[in-house]
Amino acid sequence: MAETILLEIVTPDRLVLSEEVDEVTAPGSEGEFGVLPGHTPFLTTLKVGELTYRKGKEVHHMAVSWGYAEVTPKKVTILAEAAEIAAEIDIERAKAAMEKAEKELKKLSKEDKDYLIEAARLEKSLIRLQVAERTGKTIIH
Ligand code: ATP
Description:
The protein contains 2 helices and 8 strands. By secondary structure, the chain is α+β, with helices and mostly antiparallel strands.
């Protein structure tokens, strides 16, 4: 049997995923990285982005928001502030969050202390919408 990697994704609230997979691609803060079984161990921080994992021919998409990834030859552990599988993303909620963040950002200048907070909210909502679309769901305007 071919070797696999145990992918575990944990947030402060729950164990989001625990599955044997063939390949993982994650949004490292220094750039996206890919992991196959037998990878050299490393530890990295994550940014807001899309995480994908492959099981055979199936590719699954998830949204992750910040955190850490620990890679060992047989396991990838993701400790994220938030993580959602594509099918559980509430599109209307993400759209509302996007619109609210865009509205707030228009009122702020880059020097405002809340600018980065709102920019991060906008980024999270855009990634959630991007990932939700991967399931073939449509965004209703
Ligand atoms: P919102 O502004 O939409 O309420 P938020 O910024 O409060 O979002 P987060 O702090 O990123 O949300 O996440 C809080 C919890 O809600 C996490 O468990 C996250 O997985 C979940 N969550 C946030 N947005 C969505 C969404 N659009 N669909 C499904 N779960 C979501």
